[in-house]
Amino acid sequence: MGTRFASAQKALGVCDVCGFTYRLRELRNLVRKHKDTNIKACPECWNPDNPQLNLGETPVHDPQALRDPRPDSNQFAASRAQIIPVRSVVDSGGTIGTGFIGQATVQIT
Fold first, then answer.
1. Rg (CA), the chain
2. The dihedral of CA 54, 60, 66, 72: what is its sign?
3. pLDDT 10s digit of each residue in the chain, 109 long?
4. Strands (E), the chain
5. Cβ–Cβ under 8 Å, residues 46 and 16
């Protein structure tokens, strides 16, 4: 019993894109979005399936926002100091004050 089709050793085929004649085994099917278009293309006209056409097929979890963001500050820490006036000096015409930035705990053992 024979095969249904002839062998493609020397069979010729026409490229559906450019129209030139090539060996049938050199022609490849064009695939777009994982679907065969049944268009035969020569090695010069054939392009692989572009990955950008497959956008949205794979779920992507890429969060962009931050929870409780804090603004970036390029100022010195001294500019955020809290100055508390202690007493007014009448002779020099200025105010003497104390200030603090944060808190420190010292434990001596």
1. 39
2. negative
3. 567 777 767 889 999 999 999 998 899 999 888 889 999 999 999 998 888 887 888 887 777 888 887 777 665 555 555 555 555 555 555 555 556 667 767 777 7
4. 12-14, 21-23, 28-32, 35-41, 82-89, 94-100
5. no
Token pair of 27 as six digits: 């022609």
- Residue 68 amino acid letter: D
Question: If we measure between CA atoms, which residue out of 56, 61, 27, 57 comes closest to residue 44?
Answer: 27
Residue type, 46: W
Number of residues that make up the chain: 109
Joined together, the tokens standing for residue 98 give 């104390």
Q: How far apart are CA 46 and CA 15, in angstroms?
A: 10
